[in-house]
Amino acid sequence: MISPTQATPPLVSIIIPVYNGAQWIGETLASALSQTYSNIEIIVVNDGSTDNTADVVCRYAQANLQLVEQPNRGQSAALNHGLSLAKGDYIQYLDGDDLLAPDKIERQLAFLQRQPPGTVSCCEWTRFYQDASQSQFIPQPLWQDFAPVDWLLCAWDNHLMMHGATWLIPKAVVNKAGEWDERLTLINDFEYFSRVVLASQQVRFCWGAKTYYRSGLPNSVSGLKSDTAWQSAFCSLNRGTQNLLAEEDSPRTRRVCANVFQRYVYEVYPAVPNLRQRAQQRVYQLGGATERPIGGPLFSLLRTVLGWRLAKVTKEWLYQYGYDRWRQKHSGLRSAVGVPSP
Q1: Under 8 Å CB-to-CB from 292, ≥6 apart: which residues?
Q2: Strand order in 90-93's β-sheet?
Q3: Are the C-beta atoms of 84 and 178 separated by less than 8 Å?
Q4: Element of type H or E holding 251
Q5: Which of 24, 145, 205, 276 is least enclosed by beta carbons within 10 angstroms?
Q6: Rounded distance between C-alpha atoms, residue 32 and residue 288, angstroms
Q7: Terminal-residue alpha carbon distance, the chain
Q8: Is the overall model pTM greater than 0.85, yes or no?
């Protein structure tokens, strides 16, 4: 729907950061270029890739596709570079290995234009590993309308994600929220989207618009488990919770923020003891957490006998030892049939 004052349909800027994504970027670009809504610009920021990512992007050359090169500075810097070039009235983020349904932008933009100014929208999404067509869209508690604070409370209290490609955001809200924090790597979106949501007037869920989140990639940022990555995660959680508490400092927000830090303690153990101590201090400062360690059947059994700390160490050792033995046992067979070893 176009307002009477608009001479042309709104422009949507699709910003795609990519690093060594030659294997997937073609499929991602195809999903962006096949959008049924035509007034789009696509900005691909190649973050110093050492593979042939740029060559693949060039094969898809069109007037509305721009390839930007920069030295390797990280995903957040690539996103900020793309934002600085974006001319759109709306911003669509898209990782270099994720996919959009063909009518994603058309559906969501029409939906947003029926909402009050300052509204941001998210949509249906599914996780896939190889073939997106086999994925199922299973509703989650976040698949509904929320006031901004309530959206964050639901997401954080239930440990739910809404991956970046689901959002369609008015440029005015993006400008109000500010840039991505370039100091952050792991879960940089936790902090960034806390600002986007709080900068909005409301969050509205758009049924029918769909995105596909690729999982299982060995070198993905979300899979990083180094001390530097855990530092980034802690900083992102700290800044994101501060953003929420600045908007509403109440018993309910303090409890949820305490649970965020308690979950972090469970997840990183036994690594980074200094960060775990800082996270635990935040839990105490916020009045204590109700979060309890959770896991699969093996972890639950071990926790009953050993306690959660020893149970986690034991489970990870068992998984690693069992995986290594399986890999050694089957490496010869995999080579014989031409399947690369993991």
Answers
A1: none
A2: 65-70, 40-47, 12-18, 90-93, 169-170
A3: no
A4: helix 251-268
A5: 145
A6: 45
A7: 49
A8: yes
One-letter amino acid at 308 equals: W
Give the pLDDT band (50/70/90) at residue 313: confident
DSSP 47-77: ES-SSSHHHHHHTT--TTEEEEEE-S--HHH
Report d(CA 264, CA 115) in Å as an integer.
36
Q: Judge whether 204 and 144 are in contact, CB under 8 Å.
A: no
pLDDT at 273 over 70: yes
What own/partner pairs with CB < 8 Å and gap ≥ 24 does 81-86 have? 81/45, 82/13, 82/15, 82/16, 82/17, 82/43, 82/45, 83/15, 83/174, 83/179, 83/180, 85/43, 86/13, 86/15, 86/41, 86/43, 86/171
Task: Share the mean pLDDT of the chain.
Answer: 90
For residues 175 and 86, what is the distance between their CA atoms, to the nearest angstrom? 11
**Given the structure tokens 């309308």, which residue do they identify?**
145
CA distance 154 to 160: 8
- Chain mean position to CA 68: 22
CA dist., res. 234 & res. 309, Å (int): 20
pLDDT at 216 (0 to 100): 81
Model confidence pLDDT, tens digit, residues 103-126 = 999 999 999 999 999 999 999 999
Instruction: List the single range of 210-224, 232-246, 274-288 with lowest mean pLDDT.
Output: 210-224
Tokens of 19: 């690093």
Which amino acid is it at 112?
A: L
Helices and strands counted in the chain (H then E):
12, 8
**Higher per-residue pLDDT: 292 or 57:** 57
Report whether 309 contacts 267 (CB < 8 A).
no
DSSP 154-214: HHHHTT----GGG-BEEHHHHHHH----TT--TTHHHHHHHHHHHHSSEEEEEEEEEEEEE
Q: Give the pLDDT confidence of 18-34 residue by residue, as tens digits.
A: 999 999 999 999 999 99
pLDDT for position 224: 55
